[in-house]
């Protein structure tokens, strides 16, 4: 660094340390800072900090107290909720008892069906045969012979013979 450069840098440092009249007049035009409204507190610093901390904790507790408000139930509300609970319990036990009764009845019926043999009644079978006979009676055609006699088919003796007729070349005669 040359001497001229060194001299100019020193001059700048000295200039920055002095205030001109222009700077003073500008500062006067600006509004003066307001004095603090707080009074001087002669208490020690640790006492003031402890008080501020306590005040902040109280504010937080107040916020949480209002946010998490839990109130106790009074006797009327307690009895009402107990009545609802008891009614629900009675209904559940009633449903369970009814289900158990129905289940026992089903088991008893299933057991009785296992022990009883299944017997088909002959009467039902006869009734069924009679119904079929009535249905087929209209389907059987009655033939007339040449000599004028009416031949009625005898289903009980030989149903094929009654339908086909009496022919000499039938296999029954052989």
Automatic annotation (TrEMBL):
Family annotation (Pfam families): FAM192A_Fyv6_N
Localization in the cell: Nucleus
The UniProt record lists the keyword Nucleus: yes
Signal sequence region: none
InterPro entries reported for this sequence: FAM192A, FAM192A/Fyv6_N
Protein keywords: Nucleus
Residue span, FAM192A/Fyv6 N-terminal domain: 24-107
Cellular component, GO annotation: nucleus
Regions of compositional bias (Basic and acidic residues) in chain numbering: 26-45
The organism's place on the tree of life at top rank: Eukaryota
The name this protein goes by in its record: FAM192A/Fyv6 N-terminal domain-containing protein
Organism: Boothiomyces macroporosus
């Amino acid at each position: 660094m040359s001497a001229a450069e060194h001299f100019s840098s020193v001059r700048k440092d000295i200039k920055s340390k002095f205030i001109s009249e222009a700077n003073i007049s500008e500062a006067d035009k600006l509004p003066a800072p307001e004095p603090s409204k707080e009074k001087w507190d002669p208490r020690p610093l640790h006492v003031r900090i402890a008080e501020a901390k306590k005040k902040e904790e109280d504010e937080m507790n107040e916020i949480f107290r209002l946010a998490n408000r839990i109130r106790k139930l009074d006797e009327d509300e307690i009895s009402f909720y107990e009545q609802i609970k008891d009614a629900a319990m009675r209904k559940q036990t009633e449903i369970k008892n009814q289900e158990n009764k129905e289940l026992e009845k089903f088991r008893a019926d299933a057991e009785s069906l296992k022990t009883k043999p299944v017997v088909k009644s002959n009467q039902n079978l006869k009734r069924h045969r009679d119904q079929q006979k009535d249905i087929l009676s209209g389907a059987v055609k009655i033939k007339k012979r040449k000599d004028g006699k009416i031949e009625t088919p005898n289903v009980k003796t030989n149903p094929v013979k009654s339908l086909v007729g009496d022919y000499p070349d039938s296999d029954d005669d052989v």
